Amino acid sequence: GVEAELPTLPACHVSGDVGEEETRRNARVCSHKEVTAAAAPPAMEAETITTSGGVAEAPDVAPEEQERAGSFPAVVRLSVGGAEFTTVLATLTQADPACMLAAMFAGRFALPTVPSGAVTGALCYFIDRDPTHFRHVLNWLRAPGALYCRDDELRELLADARYFGVSGLADEVARRLAAIEEAEVGRRAVVTPKEIIHMLNHKTGRALQLASVALCEGAVLNGLDMTEANLQYASLRGASLRNVSLHHANLQFADLTGANLECANLVYADLANANLTNAKCVTFFRAFVLSLVLWLWH
Length: 298
Prior knowledge:
alpha/beta, elongated, 9 helices, four-stranded mixed β-sheet
């Protein structure tokens, strides 16, 4: 028979001293390499920036692009209400993975940025919050268990700890506040309604100071003018305070469990953290409106 002529393959050199079978095999291998090379996509070159010294460096990535990529710089600048803080990413994401700050830097959503006032050209991730106690929150994340603040800061710090979802810090602050309140209760001086009436009759323009006092349970103080009285941490359990004027009074942390506050004037009274369990609270304003409606009806 007549043998078919083999195609000329420029990419492969076929030696003349090889046999016919090996010639065919070499032809098939070279043809396969050419097809594979033609089908392969061109290699993508990584974007680099070459400095004057000839060293290739990765380009700077804007914070917005880092967020889209789900990554943040190792050192993070924060602007909390305009005050700047610098920390490492691991502090925000690893100390308390369930807190709000960890969620913010998980890369799931975009974060607002503002120019840094300390470093020219740098950007800070902005948090719209009062910065007064944020250093305590950050220090807790840096070293859980480390809490160095004054007792008068604890109440506001508790609000911040709950806002940022740092549960360990919130629990510790609540524990310290409870201990302070318990100590205040232990120092309460017991006074009688007669002594309070005496103090009211002999006060010389100064607001009544009854902070941390304890009344006998069920004491009757109806109708007294206790405007601007300081009753912080006072125990008024079961007291009858009907028609009492507590206008502008300080009742923070006061124990008013079961107290009768019907028609009491509580306008501008500070009842923050007061215990009003089972208290009867028909306020002065509601009593006034009710009286007005009854008067118009008749």
